[in-house]
Design a protein that fits this description.
It is built from three helices and three strands; from the N terminus they run H-H-H-E-E-E. Helix 2 crosses helix 3. The protein is an alpha+beta fold. It has a three-stranded antiparallel β-sheet, with helices on one face. A hairpin with a 2-residue loop joins strand 2 and strand 3.
Length: 133
């Protein structure tokens, strides 16, 4: 008679409720990852483009229109779709122009719930990210 109670003590496993909870959590994490990974890949592309443009020797002689055109060409090769040349801000106060882009990535998550991520990239490696309030 003690055999069934001993078996219950040794049995380990996942209940149906526990399995469903774990499955819902994994699906939610996968959904977030599928939405966030492309946004971050594009952000790193923008960051790389701006860093490369900032290191060019002829950046001082280029006008704002030339800088925006150069960014547009590089962005089309790097599959950057969120940041447009008009979104760039070019600061010439320090000798070398500093090109920066502050933008937000917005995508639908589920129903009427959206996911919004703010990004800030600059050609100046020492630039601090902009604080969003």
């Amino acid at each position: 008679m003690h055999y069934p109670t001993q078996m219950k003590k040794r049995q380990h496993g996942l209940t149906m409720f526990g399995f469903l909870f774990v499955a819902v959590v994994l699906v939610a994490v996968a959904l977030l990852a599928m939405k966030l990974v492309p946004a971050y890949m594009e952000f790193f592309s923008v960051k790389k483009i701006l860093a490369t443009m900032g290191q060019e020797s002829d950046i001082r002689s280029k006008g704002n229109a030339e800088i925006r055109s150069d960014f547009s060409r590089r962005a089309s090769v790097g599959y950057v779709t969120v940041v447009k040349p008009e979104d760039l801000s070019i600061d010439r106060s320090g000798g070398v122009p500093v090109i920066s882009a502050d933008y937000e990535f917005r995508t639908k998550l589920v129903g009427n719930v959206s996911l919004v991520v703010d990004f800030s990239a600059s050609s100046d490696p020492n630039a601090a990210p902009v604080q969003v309030e």
